[in-house]
Structures are given as C-alpha cells and as structure tokens.
Amino acid sequence: MTITDAIAEPLPQAVIDLAALRHNVSALATLIAPSEVMLAVKADAYGHGLLPVAQAGLEAGATSLAVLEIPAGLVLRHAGVTVPLLAWLHGTQTDFRAGIEADIELGISARWQLDAIAAAGADRPAVIHLKVDTGLSRNGATVEEWPGLVEAALELQRRGVVHIRAAWSHLADASMRDDEAALAEFRRAVLVAEELGATFEVLHLAASSAGIRMPEARLDLVRFGIAAYGISPFDDSTGAELGLVPVMRLEAPVTEVHVGGTGHARLGIGFADGLPTLGIAKAHVAIGGIRRQVVSVEADSMLVDVGTDRIRVGDTAIVFGPGVNGEPIAETWADWAETIGDEMVTGVSSRVPRVYIG
Q: With a threshold of 0.90, does the pTM exceed it?
C-alpha cells in the first residue's frame, strides 16, 4: 500500500444553517399558534452554538428561551438578549442572586431552592415557574410534595421575595396514553395550587414530541428543543417527513488516499470529535454525492472504502447533513449507533469549529 498524498492539520467542521433553523422555528410556531414557542438552547443549543441559534430562533418567532442553567442565561443577557429566559437545573452552589438580578426566570422543584432564593438577598423578586413531577422523574415536586411547595412559594410571594409566574412539568413521551395521564395529573396539580391561592400567568408542559402530536398539551407555550434543529422526536418519522430541515452538516476533509488495491481514504474526523464507534459496520459517509462504507473510526480519523473511484486529498466528506447530497442524516447515524439524534448533534465535540451560513 502506498499513500498518494496527505495534508497537515486537517479540520472537520460543523456547518450550521441558520436559515434552516429559522424555517423550523417558523413552521413550529405556525403549527402551535396561538400557543407560543419557547426555544430550548440547552447544551450550547444542542451543540449548534448558543448565541447564533438564540438570535435566529427569536427572529423566526420564538418568544422565550429555555437555557437549563443560570450561567447560560447570563451569557445571553450579557449579549443583549432581553426576552424571557427560563433556567431550571440548579445545584447547591448555584448563584441565584446573579440569575434573579439578570431577570432569569427560575424553574423551582423543591423547597430548598426557595430557601436559597430567599437567602440570596436579591434586590428584586425572583420570577419562578413551579414544577410538578407528572411521571418523568426529571426533577419536579412529587404529588405529595406539591402542596407544600406551593404554600412555601405563596408565603415568599407575600413577602415580596418571589413572583409566581407559571406552573409546568415534563412529559415522558413514552406513549400517548402515558402523556394523556400526565396531562390530567398536571391539570389536577394546577387545580390544587389554585385552591391554595396561587394564580398562574403561564402553564407549559409539552416539548417537541407533544408539541407536534398532542395539541391538547400545548397550553400557553411549547418548549421546542430537538425539533427546532430539524431532528424528529419520534421513532416512526424523520425530521424531513415532519417538514423540518436538519440544521447541522458535519463535514471532514479527505486527508489520505490509499492506492494499490485497498481503495481506502482517510478522513480527518474521529471519535474524539464526537463520532460513535458503535454501529460502524453499518455506517456510511458521502464523498462526491456517493455513499462510502466506513471501515473504522479512530480518535482523530476515520477510514472509508472508496473502491476504485478517484478521490483526492482535500475532497470533502459529509458525515451527516440534510440528506440532499447523498449523505446520511443524523437520525440515521443515531440508528446505527443505537442512540437518538439529539446525542449525535450534541455530541459533536467543541473542538470541531462551527461555521454559520444562512
């Protein structure tokens, strides 16, 4: 085997199509109207880039953002974003005062969080969303804990420490029957809170799955996450079949071409860049619009079978993308790796440069 050519310091890149993101957010906003879109930009906007995605999503019709943690909300505030921001993942070291002073709304699941807010000594009331667990067990007060949480929040509201804005929960999205039961549980929890004296300006429950297929769960807003990035939340349909466009295209350069009977090319991307090693026997990439079988994945490179086709160093391989140039989509890679599309895009390493178009 001989190597015909090689290039130094090859860099893969994740091309982020903001026009595709705007299309998705606009389509989802139209679908759920008059309910509003809260765009989830957690985990650096699912690996797409927090600030560019937040701005594009707001331009396309999102009216608020879900940031998960207060520090991400502070980044957005410092960048001049003024819309409502919701953060709900808190730890014992969370700087609640910084979040409150930056007008970041706080998802509250437990009494200790209310105690921490009271102790923070902020100069303004904390705007809070009280969360009840309706079955997913992704934080939230249990049915037994819920009345006590509401009563504690009401006491702090009377003292001017908090302002109760919303009640909310997460759906498990395990089945339509499970989600219908969770919706009923959520409505019962809201009724309990109202009987205790709470009033809510906003109720929210649905994320991408229920937002698309369960109109009765849309309530005042839907927290759209992965669907906004063009990836289906369902096992029985792709994002394209839902009218969505994948936002991320993962590319890598051909760095070596092996001739002399092997018909292999090496790409400058590997598992250190976020590619899975599970399911490689099924995996393909596209070079020149043609699917190429993946042979192996190493830390910084990938070997693919190019047969007798003339491939040159510097050619671009598309690992996954919208699927319009012969390449697989992220959901197909997820199937090969026995995971979900969310993990494919979010798992692309931060060392892979993001390049923005659209």
A: yes
